[in-house]
Hints:
The chain has one domain: Aldolase class I (TIM Barrel), CATH 3.20.20.70. 32% of the residues lie in helices and 19% in strands. It contains 7 helices and 8 strands. Strands 1-2-3-4-5-6-7-8 form an 8-stranded parallel barrel, surrounded by 5 helices. The model is unreliable at 219-232 (pLDDT under 50).
Amino acid sequence: MTIRLSASILCGDLLDLRTELRSLAQAGLDAVHVDVIDGHLVPNMGIGYETLAAMVAESTLPVEVHVAGVTVEELVGPLVKIGPALITVQLEGAEDPRGIIERIHGGGIDAGVALAPATDAARVDPFLRQVERLTILTVQPGFAGQDLAAGAMDRVRTLTARARLAAPRLAVEADGHMAPSVIAQVRSYGVSHVVLGTSALFRPGVDRSQVVAAIRGQTVLPQVREGGDDDG
């Protein structure tokens, strides 16, 4: 299975986003991942609307938005107007997920749902046939530099199998602490999309093109350690 790789732009140089976008395209990434966070559901802030709009206009790669907030309904309207390639909604902050998904699709944009590590896996079931992507968070949303959540690999395996049964063509994405060894593991479970952050791509002195090529060509399944020194 070909793996699709997106880069979490919040892990990059936020003072030089134009250069970052060009670098990611040159390195062979498939998309740019942008977190839009309201500071309430998750105690952090992400990219704002004006910055996101500028990135969508500038980027030669598709821009994919992950939105997390206590009032996702209010956040989604402006995002649809900006027009990214995908808007993935954190289910824990959505009062009416089905209505939000319909609103995203109404703007001609692909929709996804995301689930935090502690949320009941059954929460995604009503939406698996309605969306284009399921994002499985393997860390708590909002911050880079985290170890894998307890039981993260078992959860990825279980949720991926659940999604494949319900919607065989659904894209399944893993996000959080995606070190190369972890990527190899989730690929073996059928994950098709991965968000790269500080555990693989955004590290000092790293050649991003080599990282991307190594991940795409990975054939040996390394031992995965849940936790440790790698970040994000």
